[in-house]
Amino acid sequence: MPGDAIRTSLVIVSRHRTETLLRCLTAVRQLDHPDFELIVVADPTAVAAVRALNWPLKLVTFDLPNISAARNAGIAAAAGEVVAFLDDDAVPEPSWLRRLTAPFAELEVSAAGGWVRSRNGISFQWQAGMVDRLTRPAPLAVPADRVSLYRATPGMAVEIKGTNCAYRRDLLCRLGGFDPGLRYYLDETELNLRLAAEGALVAVVPGAQVHHFKAGSRQRSARRVPRSLHDIGASTAITLRRHGASEAEIAATRDWLRCGERAKLIRLMVVGGIEPRDVGRLARTLEAGFAQGLSEPLPPLSPLPRSPDFVAFPAGPRPGRVLAGRVWQARRLRDAAATCAAQGEIVTLILLDPSARYHWQRYDPSGFWEQAGGLWGRAERNGRIVHLCTFEERILQERRRLSGNRPILLETL
User: Fold this and answer.
1) Overall fold of domain 8-212
2) pTM for this one?
3) 17-22 average pLDDT score
């Protein structure tokens, strides 16, 4: 473990999702970064639950539906050289924060973003990309086996996602943090565009991985069905205005956004996620939000204060263990995994059945990772569909694959 790790403040914002937040914090406690503080910005109920853990951390009570303002409250409480952000419905790999912040050893690096695994714990929800000042994405091909650096240019930002990102604290404070006008959606994109205006150097860190489960919220149900598109429309309009879009560019982007969101709604309707009448209703919320975003005042973003007090969180490297067995041994193995996790180990439980079923992975609230699927099934989604091997060979292969993200020691029960 490097002795010169960047002193970091980790900010997690949560609102009305206490159970999800506590699972996230269980994983945060297993991070191997040796020098970070934890800042939780949350509603009163969640703050009380976290305080009951009696951990050395900073708690900020905040109960407004505005993720940008909540993150700014976390930045104001931060004392680290770097401020990292993690969503409450995401779970980090043990090596995540150390790897995400390592590029800041190069003083010119302003920001860093990692890769995000999706709900199944295997495939990727996000890897890398660019975004222009009209909020339109563009591809960015990056090497998967190492950190790469990219110079943003005015009007074209390197996109890093709010659930897995880090910025230099002094830069964040000088820029005013996140735009409070963006209550939900494009909050990190707009900040990335301001960084681009300064020609920021941004690191893409494939090895810094989190698993994002996308829990239910005010904007979407637990099944990821949108409740309203109002904030998407409003945030888009505000971002366009912040970055000098002309009337013609605003109109063209509005049409582009309208078509894209309608296509998503129709796909959701086809699979039974919403009713036909919901398509029009949700489309109208998008239009109303965009209109509001065009009329809202755009106050200047004031610099944020800096906290002088760093509260070290007790983390650092832990021993790793793999427990492996057949799916019919699941109850006994889960009990054993929970026991080992409670004793301070990073535990991975692998359960296999005699099939070619695709694998999935999840983080159990008890503090261990569980992967399950067919003995001959696909794990990484670009691998072979059928993978002929013995039980012992497959466990060894998965152990090697997972060892890039967490400490692994094999034990078969």
Assistant:
1) Spore Coat Polysaccharide Biosynthesis Protein SpsA; Chain A (3.90.550)
2) 0.95
3) 97
